[in-house]
Design a protein that fits this description.
Length: 170
């Protein structure tokens, strides 16, 4: 025999409902199947996202250790201008090394970057690329200087090719 938690009367040990008051005696997950299912689904999603996040972090470290593919800056820009989707398929996640002319050195929220154009043409207004670098690398260059960088192609927004994990080569 056990005691009903609702009316405190003695009832059969195997009873799911109290015969006296009709109170539900099942454990919480059995009484709330939908909420239990949603909670389990959320926990599973969190586990999957956490596991895939750690895998992608490892692949980023691996890509940073790949030997760079040397790419002419003008050719890189022309490929993205001709077909962004095809160029992204070819370059995203790949480590490249390219040489361009510094047009901007700055930081945003302690993320230092150097922006480049592919040519030394004073009136160039086409697609450019931006490398996120260390503070030391950013401080080591000047606007107008020709610089070679190595980094992982990340994305293209409007007319700006973004490279992450960059370093100044020379």
């Amino acid at each position: 025999m056990k005691v009903c938690k609702h009316c405190k009367s003695e009832i059969n040990q195997k009873a799911k409902r109290c015969p006296q008051c009709g109170g539900d005696l099942r454990i919480w997950p059995a009484r709330h199947k939908i909420m239990t299912g949603l909670g389990a689904t959320i926990v599973l999603i969190v586990i999957i996202v956490a596991a895939s996040g750690s895998k992608s972090g490892n692949s980023n470290n691996a890509s940073a250790q790949q030997p760079p593919q040397v790419v002419d800056a003008s050719s890189l820009v022309k490929e993205f201008d001709a077909n962004k989707i095809a160029a992204q398929d070819k370059y995203n996640g790949k480590v490249i090394q390219t040489t361009g002319f510094v047009t901007n050195i700055s930081s945003a929220l302690d993320n230092f970057y150097i922006q480049f154009k592919p040519t030394n043409d004073q009136y160039y207004v086409g697609t450019s690329y931006q490398c996120y670098v260390s503070k030391d690398d950013a401080a080591s260059v000047q606007n107008g200087q020709q610089v070679t960088v190595k980094g992982t192609v990340n994305d293209v927004t409007m007319t700006l090719i973004q490279l992450k994990n960059c370093s100044v080569v020379k």
